[in-house]
Design a protein that fits this description.
Blueprint: H1 3-17, H2 39-47, E1 57-61, H3 67-75, E2 80-85, H4 88-101, E3 106-110, E4 123-129, H5 138-146, E5 149-160, H6 166-179, H7 186-199, H8 205-214, H9 221-228, H10 238-248, E6 251-255, H11 264-267, H12 271-278, H13 292-301, E7 307-313, H14 325-330, E8 332-335, E9 346-348, E10 354-356, H15 359-366, H16 374-378, H17 385-393, E11 397-400
Parallel strand pairs: 1-2, 1-4, 2-3, 4-5
Antiparallel strand pairs: 5-7, 6-7, 8-11, 9-10
Length: 402
Amino acid sequence: MSDSQTVSAAVAKLYNTYPFPPEPLLDEPPPGYNWRWNWLAAYNFCTGQKPQKQDIRILDAGCGTGVGTEYLVHLNPAASVVGIDLSTKALEVAKERCQRSGANRVEFHHLSLYDVEQLPGEFDFINCVGVLHHLSDPIRGIQALAKKLAPGGLMHIFVYGELGRWEIQLMQKAIALLQGDKRGDYRDGVQVGRQIFAALPDNNRIVKRERERWSLENQRDENFADMYVHPQEIDYNIETLFELIDASGLDFVGFSNPGFWQLDRLLGKAPELMERAQKLGDCPRGSGKANRASYRLIELLDPEVTHYEFFLSCPPLPKADWSADDAMLAAIPERNPCIDGFPSQCVFNYDYQIVNLSPLELEFLQKCDGQSTVGGILAGLQLGLDAVRVLLKQQLILLTPS
């Protein structure tokens, strides 16, 4: 058995013992939304415009118990969805989850990421959350997925970050040491880990980090096992992350939590340092590499990075330019489907952040019916075009070019 087969077998054994994620099964669609799993919202985030088609193919690569898969089906009513995973037990839960909630446009396959070429055709949207860092060869895994991404398609990826998981790494190694030849017995690993936490002093750094960040979810053994007794984990920093991205052959679109990656939130009070930071990139702007040194600086100054979540694309991916007033006025606006609390002047935006709307902004959003143009709506409102651009920047509207 090869190293990759050995690792895959160990990972499958973990998730057959503790199917993950352990979220409860519901007899109705899951609550709320995750905009990263909504094709309209995700495509708009990446390109600045509404996609031309919605009858797309979606792959949930490493779907586990189907928590994300279920959202992908319900949030994309015109799409067909495929889920793959190594764990037969997790797949059994995923099938039951989707069946019970009425997510009927999905098929599941017991398949490794390495073997994804066995699936027919290409996919417009690939979701790969919490998987690549558990492979023995993540580069081989991301390259296999990249070959299945259709031109103009998007891939959303989530992998672990080493700086914010330092205490987790220490606990993982401590549990493995104490398990000795019982390593690989995941129930024993959970028991050993819980005994360690119970024995450590209250002021212990590992204990404090667990209580501050993870203890609520880790009440469940499935979560505890996934975090502390996993047989395979690779944690990234910005430098190694972009080595993985570059190896994929895909284009880096951007992080899907861009607020964290704004340097001015850390050094905004020091204009001289901000000016120096602007000179960090030794590559021309637009190359995709100019910001990497800035990203590295951000994570060094704010080492809370427990994960990276980002979009990649298979070119060509069109990017909208709304700088020309004529193009903006002729565009057709629609409300972002990932808004909660509308209609109200106080709503939750796509990222569940509170946005306070003016009466005129609210009226504009109410008139976004998918048929009227921006210019047509503004003709009856005392609202300027710059205000519409703000709504677009806030991801509150999607625009379709005329």
